[in-house]
Amino acid sequence: MAPRKVSSVSGTVPGRFRQEILVCQYTDMMSSGGYIWNGGDPFSFTLPVLLAQLSIVVSISRTIYLLLEPLKQSMLSAQLITGIIIGKSFMGRIGHFTEVLFPPGGRLTIETAADFGFLFHLFTLGINIDPSLVKKTRKDAVAIGLTGFVLPLTVGIFSAFILPRLMEFDGEIQESILRIVTINSLSSFPVITGLLSDLNILNSDIGRIATLACSVNEICNYIVYAIQTIMSSIIRYRQWNAVWWYLVWGACLTILFSYVARPWMVYLARSIPEGTPLKEFQFLSIILAALTCGFFTELIGVPAGIGAFIFGIAIPDGPPVGSYIIQKIDTFCTGLLLPAKFAVTGLSMDLFSINKNEQTFLIEVVILLGYLGKFAGVLLSSLYFQTPLVDAICLASIMCCKGIIEITIYIMLKEDKLIDEETYALLLITMLIVTGIARPVVWYFYDPSKRYSSEPANSILFSDPKSDLRVMVCVHNEDNVPTIINLLQASNPTRTSPMSVFVLNLMELSGRAAAVLERNVYRGRLTSMRSRSEHIAKAFNYFCQNIPGITTMQHFTSIAPYASMHVDICTIAVDVRANIVILPFHKIWEIDGTIGTNLPAIRTVNQKVIQKAPCSVGILVDRGHVAGNLSIANARFYITVLYIGGPDDREALAYASRMVGHPNINLTLVWLTWIGYGKVASEIEDDIDYDMIRQFRANTIANERVFFKEEIARDAVCTTRVLRSLEDGCNMCIVGRQHDPESPIIQGLTDWSECPELGDIGDMLATTDFRFSLLVVQQLPPGVAFPDRSTLRTVPSSHTAFS
After folding, report:
1. Neighbour count for residue 523 (Cβ, 10 Å)
2. β-pairing verdict for 8-14 and 19-25
3. What is the pLDDT confidence band of residue 1, given thresholds at 50, 70 and 90?
4. pLDDT of residue 593
5. In terms of DSSP H, where are the helices of 491-627?
6. What is the rounded distance in angstroms from the CA atom of residue 515 to the CA atom of residue 17?
């Protein structure tokens, strides 16, 4: 018997609201089984059609995203545009294309797969949400969130009462207007945080305000939306007991969330050893629980994705549970199945079906009034709290953006016939236009670095001799701690020359939506936090307790994307008035001297800090375990300062000048000059360098642990020979980052530079040919004006123990 030519047949039947399509699917036509070799059509079977649909949808959406990415558009916009292109508006008008790739039976299959992926995407969005964030909202965020909800709601309700007086509306249109008003008042937490992350401003000032404000806004919206849903059910079905059912189910969900799901997930997170992934049974049990929550919410008339979303909120964000689950399922569900969801959404939308009549115009006016009301509400409340005008405009633009949560509500309203096809199309198109305009506007006009770039730059050389040295150290992992503590000990904090230390524990944002920047208070004991922060804090606290010259020890934690982590570093540096920031190098060496780990994300952080830092920066290349270095407190430590000239070298020498007072440190200053130096001594830079060296030698002439060497070089070859000689008897080398590129002893070294953030000399010393640790110092970012020479202090005696 020859196979059938189609896997399903369809026809129209009377439906609940209108004529609907009835699909009869053959159960034995799933896989083609090589039917093409017999001259058959593989698209007559369900599985080949589904695979072709997914391939086309993902390919087109990715292509569109690549074209829109320079305009700072989101993947969601590309996926919606893909659905519009292959839907009724364009390619769907080609009859053969629709019959082959999107027949009624084939659409049912891809819709089922898309809904499954959409459920798990909402589940991951729930995991990203931290419920305790609501407790951290500030007064300004609460006000911005409330005004951003109340004003568009008020404007919309006012227009809903006025418009029926201007023209005749049927009852369904009037109810649609009320729904539109509520939706336009929403600023969804997952949507806003996703946008902030895409624009790399999640941990900026307006990013943090927007994160807190949209959480307040979303709570208000859900309350109003629940009331609307209950009242709509009562009016539509004339059943007052619906109120009790909603309250009962709502109470049950709250109890399950608060007293069953959340405690279970918290216990699971605490029982997993740090750095250990979830077991397969634990992972599958969580996935099964998410599916079960979706099943029960589907039973009571709420989309299954909402149940999975609520259960996701119960899971602690971040490692070890939240980030692991997202890592396991996010790529498949978000990258493959989610585009199909929005493609299906666009398939049913026909742009050419929008009627150009007065009623359509007024519905669009209601939609735009909602956006304008939200923009005005956020803008006015931001200005009230003295937010700069440009920042307030950017914040208002951010809060007007819509995304996946709003589209979910649009689909629900369309499927429940609470809005018609025309209103549905208008909502989607307006959302694409407004969000498409707001994203590049925010990206172009908002610069997080304005907050600290306008502050006076700090450095060691130009610091107040009567104040303490303020050092901020950044820690990415526990391996950074020993060498950083050695460096702090070498800085020789004493009662007459005190030092304040600020430790910033840096962690990548993973498995959570909101960035974190907070101060940690350790009162003689460790907190209950289960993370590497405990061990890091314990090590620095022990160092502080044994060094009397440490006047302040403060701990901070930053959880942010690597792309914007530099914002937190510079922000803390401004707030604590740091003189220098110490950054770990992105390469980690093995015990045999070879490079074991290369972390490009940390390198990006270092490069951005160097460009925007409000103070001096030191990049610490840690090879202490390679050279076999012990603690400075227990062994002799040999430090070499390579001095070529320039502001950065002067800053490096000023820092090293503090170290010569430590009894266990031997310091060697190598002054590398070139033939002809002195003939241009009238130049300001050379004059300052000469004075710096002269005063350093005068202050250390009686110190038997300080040595001075002057090396003369003709070209870069001689410079390389001098660098090779530093290997003998050196535990750490300190050098400036930037040097005169026209100097003969530097020219040619840039041809082999692999790490420009270390400078020409630092890059060469960071290669595997050398085994000592390295500190590369930059006084101020490139392009920043240096203080006038009249204010220059060379080597201040108050910062040294040898005067």
Report:
1. 6
2. antiparallel
3. very low
4. 63
5. 532-545, 565-575, 600-612, 624-627
6. 46
DSSP-derived secondary structure letter, 615: B
Band (pLDDT 50/70/90 cuts) for residue 786 is very low
Over the range 86-110, which residues count as b (16 or more CB within 10 Å of their CB) and which as e? bbbbebbeeeeebeebbbbbbbebb
Residue with tokens 């990715």: 62
Strand 516-520: give its sheet, edge to edge.
516-520, 550-560, 499-508, 469-475, 580-584, 616-621, 773-778, 732-736, 637-643, 665-674, 706-713
Q: Please return the burial class of 454, using the count of CB atoms within 10 Å of its CB with bins 0-12, 13-18 and 19+.
A: exposed
What is the predicted pLDDT for the residue at 471?
93
In the three-class reduction of DSSP (H, G, I as helix; E, B as strand; rest coil), residue 789 is classed as helix
One-letter identity of residue 570: C
Q: How confident is the model over 190-231, as pLDDT tens digits?
A: 888 888 888 888 888 888 898 888 888 888 877 887 777 667
Asked if residues 118 and 337 have their Cβ atoms less than 8 Å apart, the reply is yes
Cα(303)–Cα(109) distance, integer angstroms: 18
The gap from C-alpha 194 to its chain's centroid, in whole angstroms, comes to 9
User: What are the start-end ranges of the H helices in 167-204?
Assistant: 171-184, 189-198
C-alpha 330: how far from its chain's center?
A: 16
Residue 457 confidence (pLDDT) above 80: no
E strand or H helix that includes residue 577: none
Give 631-689 as a 3 state SS string: CCCCCCEEEEEEECCCHHHHHHHHHHHHHCCCCCEEEEEEEEEECCCCCCCCCHHHHHH
How far apart are alpha carbons 299 and 310 in whole angstroms? Answer: 15
The 10s digit of each residue's pLDDT in 482-519 is 888 888 888 888 888 888 999 999 988 876 777 888 88
Query: 260: which DSSP letter?
Result: I
Residue 658: the pLDDT is 87
Q: Which domains does the chain have, with CATH numbers?
A: 1-41 (no CATH), 84-445 (1.20.1530.20), 453-786+795-799 (3.40.50.12370)
